[in-house]
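Bug: token stream looks shifted between consecutive jobs. Job 1:
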Amino acid sequence: MQIFLREKRLKMKDPARQLLPLLVKVLTAAVAFAGGGTSVGVPAGIAGVQPLAMIAIHMASLELDRSASIKVSPNLLGLQKDDTEWVKVELHSPKPSSDDWVGVFSPANFNASTCPTEVGNSREQEPLICSSPIKYQFANYSNAEYIKTGKATLRFQMINQRSDFSFALFRGGLANPKLIAVSNTVSFANPEAPLYPRLAQGKLWNEMTITWTSGYNIDEALPFVEWGPNDGHQTRSPAGTLTFSRNDMCGSPARTFGWRHPGYIHTSFLKELWPNTMYSYKLGHQLFNGSYVWSKAYSFRASPYPGQDSLQRVIIFGDMGKAERDGSNEFSNYQPGSLNTTDQLIKDLDNIDVVFHIGDITYANGYLSQWDQFTAQIEPIASAVPYMIASGNHERDWPNTGSFYNTMDSGGECGVLAETMFYVPADNRAKFWYVKGIAIFI
């Protein structure tokens, strides 16, 4: 796949200039294309599958081993208000095997007591675990001597996802997982903090929207954005709050093992912006005891006046997906180019005015935890320039739900995640059809 950087200069004094060809720079990007062949190290037929779907978590059995252990440090993250932090996992198995693996679960309590009540279930035995891990690594990853010693040290990059975490050691591989040890609990200092802002152009040229995720429902705290011109007067704009439930999902895995509470998604509208002006902003929540919770500070440049002589640099791509910087899910080799693409965009951010991500956004495919990880991955981009999305088959398609194709590509999400996690200036967000002019660029 390729990324197209489109530059267009408009000069109203000479209308003929608007008919000049667009200058198109093609940046080669190692973006994996869904369904584009077999990945290295993955059996034929598995390539392109969401890596978490390779885990038969519903088949897990309990075989706790007193001689096995798994310990994680530090156990309290985000003391410096960081939303991303690395942890060290030390594990020991008395019967090490090449298919031993460590899964990260969030919330930390993942036993059968968390399983939803099912009506008319004819299964003879209920599953012991009803939620998929949010990521995993094999025990011998970066530990060549594990089979000999039974000891390994792994590193995981954790992001704040509104709940605590625990790490579980399994034997039996992904297809027949046997739980042998569970770690201590790890959490962020404020798991409910406002995080991962996503800018989007509003319906008007001088309007910017900011969407973010937090753990605060509207009955716990009032969401808002404090913003204003750099070094100028700051004002506050309120935000609306959305969320959804398991029953809003159309099928499995989104409704079953892939379900994870999405938190609360807030959107604020910043209006009557001055053209080409730099604005600073930060996300805020006012608790009902009068205290405030703040995000870190961000900034963006407002759009030019329509028709103004300006150079607009527009990135257009699709099918990016997400990947893990800590090497998790590494045997899947799933969407390996997404970090390369993300990092290239971050590196060239000063030369980008707007991003259009046209469909197949996260490839979460019904594993909801992956949307948090995607918004964390693109935060340096989406917090600084408008990140406009459209829906693809991996966001929307599900049988008998009105999608264009009657496939199961969304994993049961049926568009709910995409239309809630991101703002689009459409009259009907479920339709995802909209036209957006950027200084007359359409």
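Job 2, same session, no restart:
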Amino acid sequence: MPSKIYLSWAEFEEAIQYIALKLRETEFHPDLIVAIARGGLIPGVRLSHILRVPMRSIHMTFYDEHDNRLERPILLIPLQTPHEVKGKKVLLVDDIADTGLTLKNALEYLKSLGVKEVKIATIAYKPSSIVIPDFYLFTTNKWVVFPWEKEPIIFEKGIVDHPREL
């Protein structure tokens, strides 16, 4: 059994359509989507277009300026206009609920800004996560490789030099 799950672009699109459908079946109608960089950006943009809801982003990281791993993620780039979430319903989007620490910290950050309600959407959810998303497509304990994380074929085939080698 492979230790990784590789999602194709078609599977990603199916996941986003499924999440959007499940969202529409609820009473929760977000005023704004907040995507967590980096993994939540592409899902956030797609949901923003499908749901016709504006999107903003934040960047949280587990690494300090010396590339040392931290115990908890820190907010590296906050919302540029934090006042616009006050009193709003926000859909917080990331690619996966892995440990749940990033989602937990992002949720705490949004609540500190006075959001009215927050729901969480991810494509994948790991049962070991301390946060359970409100909307997700599948549960797994495996490493998930999303389509935007795969090496472009032009690098694999040697058509162009890998950017790290330039």
